[in-house]
Specification:
By secondary structure, this protein is of the alpha/beta class. 46% of the residues lie in helices and 20% in strands. The protein has twelve helices and ten strands. Strands 1, 2, 3, 4, 5, 6, 7, 8, 9 and 10 form a ten-stranded mixed beta sheet that branches. The longest helix is centred in the N-terminal third of the chain and has 23 residues.
């Protein structure tokens, strides 16, 4: 009897301790994993979120850049991390692309993570070399169709979202061109500016310097609606007659599966405050990045829609990681 009472008391103490730990979260620094190197737009967004979360949560949120293997280094590590709220992940579109594209990732996009909230949307600008003969989408489509296989389209790398955008455009518009993977968007953009490649879907922030210097010319933007930062650039959907065409890089906060609900809810509420912050919204709006928060249910619905688009494309077009 005494032993039973002791075990019951011990169990109650552990439950009480666990509940207290969840309520007190965070009581030490939080590690925010970012699957990209420092300096890019995705890293910039994550760092602003980290700074704002630090102020809201009262504990330091540290950005941990873990680039490599098309973001799978970071995704694999987060999937294996302790589900205690002290490892959070500013993941992106590759979370749902890589399992189908690569086939050997060490995580399940549905079972390994708890979805928390969207963070941002970044559209791509379809830019062409300044000497490219097409001045608008109608002329571009005519040029590519008249010269099948002649033109090169740069991408940030195999499986990058702008690579997927180029694949989606090629498939939906019935075009023939060569997609050339580079080691990053900056290198690819330079080759478009110099004429070694003729066009590219570039992140809006990366495209802007080339557009401003007149080394490239904007043809269209890949979001469903025009960007407030680039109001004169038509969407691919409207200019190419491709309804519902959307190819954006998105960031979303996820945590390891099994993270306690009170922690997930507290983190989601904090992220919502950041996403509604006028200072944050304006800072990235001028760069063409939309700060976008969400509920967990909204993120789950979006996640499933995006997964269907990209996994279907990868399978139908036979795209492989080589």
């Amino acid at each position: 009897m005494k032993r039973s009472i002791f075990l019951a008391a011990a169990a109650a103490t552990l439950v009480s301790f666990a509940a207290s730990a969840q309520t007190d979260w965070p009581n030490k620094p939080v590690n925010m994993v970012v699957p990209y190197p420092p300096g890019g737009v995705n890293d910039a967004v994550a760092r602003v979120y980290a700074d704002k979360l630090t102020a809201i949560l009262g504990k330091t949120v540290v950005v941990d850049n873990r680039a490599g293997a098309a973001t799978t280094v970071a995704s694999n590590s987060v999937a294996k991390a302790a589900p205690d709220g002290y490892t959070i992940y500013a993941g992106g579109t590759s979370l749902i692309i890589n399992p189908t594209l690569m086939g050997n990732v060490q995580y399940d996009p549905h079972k390994s993570f708890e979805l928390v909230s969207l963070m941002s949307f970044t559209p791509f600008i379809l830019q062409v070399n300044a000497d490219f003969p097409a001045k608008d989408m109608t002329e571009l489509l005519a040029q590519v169709r008249a010269n099948p296989g002649k033109f090169n389209v740069g991408s940030s790398g195999l499986g990058a979202t702008n690579h997927m955008a180029a694949e989606l455009f090629r498939a939906r518009a019935g075009l023939k061109y060569t997609i050339v993977p580079y080691r990053g968007g900056a290198q690819a953009g330079q080759d478009v500016a110099s004429g070694n490649a003729q066009m590219m879907f570039s992140a809006s922030l990366e495209a802007k310097p080339f557009l401003d210097s007149k080394k490239t010319r904007a043809i269209a933007i890949s979001s469903l609606t025009r960007s407030p930062a680039f109001p004169d650039i038509p969407t691919v959907a409207e200019s190419a007659g491709l309804p519902d065409f959307q190819a954006i890089f998105w960031q979303a906060m996820v945590v390891p599966a099994g993270t306690p609900r009170p922690i997930v809810d507290k983190l989601q509420a904090a992220l919502a405050k950041v996403a509604a912050d006028p200072e944050v919204i304006e800072k990235f709006k001028v760069q063409g990045v939309e700060i976008k928060g969400s509920t967990q249910d909204e993120l789950k619905a979006f996640y499933l829609r995006e997964e269907k688009v990209w996994t279907t494309l990868i399978k139908e077009q036979g795209i492989k990681a080589e």
